[in-house]
Structure formats: structure tokens, C-alpha cells
Design goal:
- By secondary structure, the protein is an alpha+beta fold.
- It has a domain at 40-100.
- It is built from four helices and six strands.
- It has helices at 17-23, 33-39, 124-137, 163-169, and strands at residues 42-47, 53-56, 59-62, 71-77, 80-88, 91-100.
- Strands 1-4-5-6-3-2 form a six-stranded antiparallel beta sheet, with no helix packed on it.
């Protein structure tokens, strides 16, 4: 990514992504583990019964008696229905105590499939990394550069005022 995609000009923006990233200012602070975990939790609402219990997907839970007959939000990991955080009006008020657990995973939750990718024999990331290592290994030895204009390959025909432009465009000297 760093040596190929981020440096190439993007077709929509007309600028390389790395330039746009640096122009946007300092990078945002990364999320904390707690914030990141919270982002992937699911939630459902339930009304607590007068006996301070409620059911969810075949499981029965108990909460504090003060929550009886109130509508609460339950925040949970869809792959673990044994621990539910209870919130009232967006404020955390405790953890639901599981009474009978019949289902451990939310019915709509799907475990991540174990994807096996076919082996092609081409290690693209390895090739990109090797190219990047070669780029970083190249050093310019400024002390041993030949003096300006001291090039044995120059001849009179190639010397003209447009040579640098022609060379940059891939045009041979003398052909305009």
C-alpha cells in the first residue's frame, strides 16, 4: 500500500492519497480498545416484567428490582448472550443476571467463515515489499557525482535548449 497505492495519482481526486492525507492535518487519535469493542456490540430493547425479569431469544434474565416495568436497552456481544449490559435512558445501570440460558449466540449472528484462499504461487505483497526495500536501500553518493556538464556521452547534436524537456518526455534529441 505504502509504495504503490498511496503514491499513485487517484483517478477521482487527481492527487495521490498520501498527499491528500498529509494535507488534511494531523491524524486522528486511534480508538481505545473499549471504544472499539463498544462499536461492534449489538443492542435490543425489552420491557422488564413486574418480577424484574425479561426474556430474549429463549433466554431468561434477571435485573435490579428498580427496573421493573421499565423499557431498557440491552447491549451485548452477539456471539455471547450470557452477559448483557443493561442501560436505562442511555445510562449504564448494571449487568443482567442469566437465569436460564438456552441459546448462547444471537440467531442472526454468523461466526466468521474460515476462508481458505487458493495458492497462486505469486506473492504480490512480498514483491511490493522487496521493491520498497530496494527503493530504501538506494543511496545517492553526493561526494562522487561527476561535475555538471562532464558527460562523455554528450555530443554536439544532442545539446540544445530543449534537451531536459525532450528527455523527460522520452523524445530523442533532434526529433521535434
Amino acid at each position: 500500500m505504502e509504495s504503490v497505492y498511496h503514491r499513485a495519482t487517484h483517478s477521482d481526486t487527481g492527487a495521490p492519497p498520501l498527499e491528500r492525507f498529509h494535507a488534511a492535518g494531523p491524524a486522528p487519535t486511534p480508538p481505545t480498545e473499549t471504544t472499539l469493542r463498544e462499536a461492534f456490540l449489538w443492542s435490543e430493547k425489552r420491557t422488564v416484567s413486574k418480577t424484574a425479569t425479561f426474556g430474549m431469544h429463549g433466554n431468561d434474565y434477571e435485573v435490579d428490582a428498580e427496573l421493573a416495568r421499565q423499557r431498557v436497552e440491552l447491549v451485548f456481544d452477539p456471539l455471547d448472550l450470557t452477559e448483557l449490559e443493561v442501560r436505562l435512558a442511555g445510562r449504564r445501570v448494571g449487568i443482567a443476571v442469566p437465569l436460564h440460558i438456552r441459546r448462547h449466540v444471537h440467531p442472526k449472528a454468523r461466526a466468521e467463515p474460515d476462508l481458505e484462499r487458493p495458492v497462486t504461487g505469486i506473492d504480490y505483497l512480498g514483491l511490493v515489499a522487496a521493491r520498497r526495500e530496494r527503493e530504501l536501500a538506494q543511496r545517492i553518493d553526493y561526494r562522487n557525482l561527476p561535475p555538471a556538464g562532464d558527460n562523455d556521452n554528450d555530443n554536439v547534436e544532442e545539446r540544445d535548449e530543449h534537451r531536459p524537456v525532450a528527455h523527460a518526455l522520452g523524445i530523442r534529441a533532434g526529433t521535434r
